[in-house]
Amino acid sequence: MASEVILTSQNKTMNMSDNNEFDVTQTIQLIDVIITHVNLTGVNSVLLTSANYVMDVRRVLPSNDKSLSFNNTYYPDVSFVIPPSVVKQSNSTLGIRVGFTLFQNAELFPSKKYKVYKVISAKVTGLMDNTILKDPVKFTLPANQSSMTSLSCGFWDFKASDWSTHGCIMTSQSPVMCQCNHMTNFAILITIHSQGNLNKLSTQRNNLIFLDYIS
Description:
By secondary structure, this protein is an alpha+beta fold. It has a single domain (4-214), classed as Chondroitinase Ac, Chain A, domain 3. It has three helices and 14 strands. It has helices at 24-37, 84-88, 195-214, and strands at 4-9, 12-17, 45-49, 53-60, 68-72, 75-82, 96-103, 119-124, 137-140, 149-157, 162-164, 168-173, 176-180, 185-192. Strands 3-4-7-8-14-10-11 form a seven-stranded antiparallel beta sheet, with helices on one face. The protein is globular.
């Protein structure tokens, strides 16, 4: 039997099925529905929480000229910033809403290439996920780096059913800060290297140093 996650906020509750049969596409579609239809009567924003998700939904004016940020006191190492130009790219005729969703784990996003701990997504109604943004969105997420790992910034590619780094760059390594030129689901991608690969990389670096020295 499917369990039920209760997304709660002040004076508001919403149910979201936590059915194990739900895949990432169905879950994101459901989240989009929540962002579009959650009741914002009398308020400009609402925070929805569950054991697996944190959602921040806001009503935004088309004339907005300030960056929109996801900052939560319970998650000080997580942030997401949408520049004002992104809202102006929306073609929504029903009023613009912005939704941030923090996934507490990456179970919905199984990868053959990367290790991922947390996922954050952002949605602006009236803006397709593959729209190239005039100004990039920026985000930070917790990531543990060691000598056996390397980090990169990426998004969930629905066509490939895996993470991709296309359109994303890392702007800082400590702390890890990323920016991407489109809106979707983002994460810090951790590549775990085997000792053999590390030895190969070390040999390649030493060869380059030697060639540089003799030239």
